[in-house]
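A student in our group prepared the protein record below, which I am reviewing. This is what I was given:
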Amino acid sequence: MTAFKAACVQLRSTDDVQDNIKCVSELIREAKRGGADFILTPENTTLMAPDGGAKLDRSFIEDRDPALPAFRTLAEELGIWLLIGSLAIKVSGDKTANRSFLINPRGVIAARYDKIHLFDVDLPSGEKYCESNTVAGGHEARLAQTPWGKIGMTICYDVRFPQLYRALAKQDAFALTVPSAFTETTGKAHWHVLLRARAIENGAYVLAPAQGGVHVNGRHTYGHSLIVNPWGEVIAEGGTEPRVIYADIDPAEAVAARTRIPNLQHDQSFEGP
């Protein structure tokens, strides 16, 4: 239960995988120079494609993805725990998985998580998204063991489904990761309140690295990477530009918050109306 420093890397990824690998690697190195022990990147770290078809064309099966060896080598070189928020990993001829990777300081993949809840919406702004057209959803919650305790892994739209976070917290996750590429429209309305709510109701840290700004495909993401403490206080926040934010994380604060408000112990099952 030792304290450590976490860093969220905020990006504005393009449709050039190799260029994105270079850019994010530079920011990861910056985060390490800033003293971070655990560094996190957003959803779609290496690819913000113009459309689902282009994403499929530029994606790889896991064993051939060029980003994974680069990031595994970097984690080992820097001696850090590294969460790659998500990569598009090809799992069939017409589908990818939106997959998050936790890499340990030996360069070993310690845990994988495939995004469960897929973003299929028509927004009032006229924006339309149908992630399920080209993405295969995951089916398993993922809890990862680290030197500081257990961390629950999620991605972006998952944040709207509190039952997932409650399940992770009940299995003693002291921190919850939410790498994201929130739209500007939904980000302005809901980003802060959703992340703070997940922290408050579970007595857990929430670490949410984000994409931000206008991408080459025309998509406008909200940015504002956040680190929220178990009492629901925002302790670090980014704007919209690529950058690194930092916060000191003490797992004992999760224990303290759950002692002050023991709602995890008071959950009850009930039948609906």
About this structure: The mean pLDDT is 95. The two ends are 42 Å apart (CA to CA). The chain has one domain: 4-263.
